[in-house]
Design goal:
The protein is of the alpha/beta class and about 375 residues long. About 20% of the residues lie in helices and about 25% in strands. The longest helix has 14 residues, at about 200-210. The N and C termini lie far apart (about 50 Å). Its EC number is 2.7.7.27.
């Protein structure tokens, strides 16, 4: 069944920089914003952009991610002709099963893509928080007669050395790609969003098979090779909110962005909804002596204390006289009475016992999933 465009979401990353939050789940499955998982944003972008055929490439600890996506019905992706497909690595007659990089993962799924014979392939990262109309990027790609288009966003010059940087001419064409340059010439950072003409990309994969070439990664291998071959490649400038939540600090900041201003990332926008696999939870209960300010409180929460500038995920319980501020509390956390928590991220299922005090410090306080924290542990420091 031919499709004009097919999306492939790279969702197999281990996310080691997120530490305790990715010990048992893939980074795209990490809780975010009280009721979502990180991958909900890119899946919702596909749905809102009218893209109805999506492959999700999984690898590291995929069980929860697979269960969350299911048949895609929550994103209107349970289609007869199209829909969402979970694509784990597999053993074939030529090589082992693991994906070696972003480009290798797409290469391994050539037969899936060929079944739909698309004109264009949209390649996405499953671990970024943003809203984007991919149709606008596709129209730009077609207008520029581009063979490969890479979405870019301006970052601060002090941050540019952390990203893959695209150096462009005045017409937006890319003449050079630099991976995390020490002295960047540009501040146009790659967002990990690519549109390729499928026939062209396919030729590179076939060539790599015949000549035993390692085109494993788009940023390190394939894009530099295409630039060397003078392939018409353009940068698509994106002006909205975008954040790579690959570290504890960036994940905390992105959660805080949700409550600082609707102008930053508006979850209430009816024209661009973020869909998710909604948990069947009872309504939230707020006690008579509780005070909640500038916070997101998901269903199933029982709040008997005070909450300020925080995100409470579903199923969280906060005891009497407790005070939570500038914190992200992940699902099903139990917080006892007379507890103080400041600038922290509390992992799913953790138990914070009565009278525990976690004060703001230079770094974000982190409590692992299912940890039990009592007064004795605080003197040794929070991990």
């Amino acid at each position: 069944m031919k499709k004009d465009i097919l999306a492939m979401i790279l969702a197999g990353g281990q996310g080691s920089r997120l530490g305790v939050f990715t010990k048992r789940i893939a980074k795209p499955a990490v809780s975010f914003g009280g009721k979502y998982r990180i991958i909900d944003f890119v899946l919702s972008n596909c749905t809102n952009s009218g893209i109805d055929t999506v492959g999700v490439l999984t690898q590291y600890r995929p069980l929860i991610l697979n269960s969350h996506i299911g048949i895609g019905s929550h994103w209107d992706l349970d289609r007869i002709n199209g829909g969402v497909y979970i694509l784990p690595p597999y053993m074939n007659e030529k090589e082992g099963s693991w994906y070696r990089g972003t480009a290798h993962a797409i290469h391994q799924n050539m037969s899936f893509i060929d079944d739909y014979n698309p004109e264009y392939i949209l390649i996405l990262s499953g671990d970024h928080i943003y809203k984007m109309d991919y149709n606008k990027m596709l129209n730009y790609h077609i207008e520029k007669k581009s063979k490969a288009t890479i979405a870019v966003i301006e970052v601060g010059w002090d941050e540019a050395s952390r990203f893959g940087i695209m150096n462009t001419k005045e017409d937006g064409s890319i003449y050079e790609f630099e991976e995390k340059p020490k002295n960047p010439k540009s501040n146009l950072a790659s967002m990990g969003v690519y549109i390729f003409e499928w026939k062209m990309l396919r030729k590179y994969f076939i060539k790599s098979e015949k000549e035993n070439l390692n085109y494993d990664d788009f940023g390190k291998d394939l894009i530099p090779k295409m630039l060397e071959d003078k392939v018409d490649m353009f940068a698509y400038p994106f002006k909205g909110y975008w954040r790579d939540v690959g570290t504890i600090e960036s994940l905390w900041e992105a959660n805080m962005d949700l409550i600082r201003s609707k102008e930053v990332l508006n979850l209430q926008d009816p024209k661009w909804k973020i869909y998710t696999n909604t948990m069947a939870m009872p309504p939230q209960y707020i006690g008579k002596n509780s005070n909640i300010n500038e916070s997101l409180v998901a269903d199933g929460c029982v709040v008997l204390g005070d909450v300020k500038s925080s995100v409470l995920s579903h199923g969280v319980t906060i005891g009497e006289n407790s005070n939570i501020s500038d914190s992200v509390i992940m699902p099903n956390v139990t917080i006892g009475k007379n507890v103080v928590i400041e600038k922290a991220m509390i992992g799913e299922g953790a138990v914070i016992k009565d009278n525990v005090i976690i004060r703001e410090c230079e770094k974000i306080n982190v409590i692992s999933e299912y940890d039990i924290v009592d007064e004795e542990l605080i003197s040794e420091g929070v991990m």
